[in-house]
């Protein structure tokens, strides 16, 4: 199993919408590195759902319900999406400020590549963020 963090602007697609929909295609990714990360996802992988721009915090956990397939929202190109299934909200939201203030997290892509919308997390970073979010699988 691999671990991920996926970002969405809450005014475009929020955690509440994810919860209401249950399973949602993660469409609209138009960055090649993020696309490659989507392609690397496998059914059952876990991801933190992160609100970007507004909130800037981890708000929930989703799982990959369907591996990469052609993104129906793409007019051209080889863009892909995955289906994300709601798992649970986190007990404690983890803000970007808290992440940046935690020395053990200084190497995560959220800090190094802040504009990347789909990023892999190491098991160590995943576990630490789970503790911070008070979320137990």
Can you walk through the features of this model?
It is globular, with a radius of gyration of 14 Å. The protein is built from five helices and six strands, in the order E-H-E-H-E-E-E-H-H-E-H. The protein is an alpha+beta fold and 137 residues long. The protein has a six-stranded mixed β-sheet. It has one domain: ph1033 like domains (ph1033 like fold), CATH 3.10.590.10.
What's the level 1 CATH class?
Alpha Beta
Query: Percent range for helical residues?
Result: 25-40%
Topology, number of strands: 6
Radius of gyration: 14 Å
| Strand order, sheet with most strands | 2-5-4-3-1-6
How far the N terminus sits from the C terminus, by CA atoms, comes to 13 Å
Could you state the order of secondary-structure elements as H and E?
EHEHEEEHHEH
Taken from the alpha-carbon principal axes, the silhouette is: globular
The major β-sheet equals:
6 strands, mixed
CATH superfamily: ph1033 like domains
Mean of pLDDT: 96
Q: What is the number of domains?
A: 1
CATH fold name, please? ph1033 like fold
**Unreliable runs:** none
Structural class: alpha+beta
Known CATH architecture: Roll
Tally of contiguous helical segments:
5
How are the elements arranged and paired?
Elements: E1 3-8, H1 15-21, E2 23-25, H2 32-40, E3 46-51, E4 57-70, E5 80-95, H3 96-100, H4 109-112, E6 118-121, H5 123-133
């Amino acid at each position: 199993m691999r671990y991920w963090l996926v970002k969405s602007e809450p005014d475009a697609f929020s955690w509440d919408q994810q919860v209401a929909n249950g399973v949602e295609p993660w469409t609209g990714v138009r960055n090649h590195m993020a696309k490659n990360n989507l392609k690397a996802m496998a059914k059952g992988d876990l991801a933190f759902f992160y609100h970007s721009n507004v909130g800037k915090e981890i708000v929930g956990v989703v799982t990959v319900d369907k591996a990469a397939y052609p993104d129906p929202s793409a007019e051209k190109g080889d863009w892909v999406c995955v289906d994300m299934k709601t798992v649970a909200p986190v007990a404690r939201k983890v803000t970007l400020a808290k992440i940046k203030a935690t020395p053990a997290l200084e190497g995560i892509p959220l800090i190094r590549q802040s504009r990347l919308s789909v990023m892999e997390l190491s098991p160590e970073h995943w576990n630490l963020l789970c503790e911070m979010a008070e979320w137990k699988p």
